[in-house]
Design goal:
The chain is mainly alpha-helical. It contains 10 helices and no strands. It starts with a helix and ends with a helix.
């Protein structure tokens, strides 16, 4: 029976560590977050964090692993692409665990080159392939860059700087206002 419960306990411990790490990295940033604080938040001994993730860099990398699960734009109605993308990004920014991951990415990228590289990988491995599925593949990097600038600018103003007029917008308002701009970028 111990053999059966051990993997479940291990999975639960890993999940608790990642949840605590995402919160702590989002609140404190990479430099100020400590393994001890993360372990305390997870209710475990710090040695367990080290056992599963090796060091703070390994934990940070695991905590920031994000799958954007962007919609298949080639299968969507052509006139709804911008709304789909804008809506998906708002969902990601407003729901755990991706909200903490994306907040940490945007906040930490300003001061940490390793985080910049992770953000660039997300762009190259997830946003670019989605954009390549619609429009001219030759200008997909340009279009994807414009979409990233739009969505990251919105995220910075809404979730990091918390500008009151942007924070006050509803999900539907954001999609209605930003969707047409993203649509334009997708169909340039």
């Amino acid at each position: 029976m111990t053999v059966e419960t051990s993997p479940r306990r291990s999975d639960a411990t890993r999940a608790a560590i990642l949840e605590a790490a995402r919160r702590r990295f989002a609140e404190d940033g990479f430099r100020k977050a400590t393994i001890r604080a993360i372990a305390a938040d997870a209710g475990i001994d710090p040695s367990m964090v080290m056992r599963y993730y090796g060091n703070k860099d390994g934990l940070f990398d695991a905590a920031l692993d994000v799958d954007l699960q962007l919609p298949d734009l080639a299968a969507a109605e052509p006139d709804s692409l911008g709304e789909l993308v804008a809506g998906r990004f708002i969902e990601l920014w407003e729901n755990p665990p991706t909200a903490d991951i994306l907040f940490t990415l945007i906040r930490s990228a300003v001061t940490d080159e390793a985080v910049v590289e992770r953000a660039q990988r997300v762009f190259a491995q997830q946003l670019m392939p989605a954009v390549l599925r619609v429009g001219d593949p030759g200008d997909a990097p340009h279009r994807a860059g414009l979409i990233a600038s739009q969505m990251l600018g919105l995220a910075l103003c809404r979730y990091v700087l918390r500008l009151p007029p942007v924070v006050a917008m509803t999900h539907a308002q954001i999609v209605a206002d930003i969707g047409p701009t993203v649509q334009k970028y997708l169909t340039l």
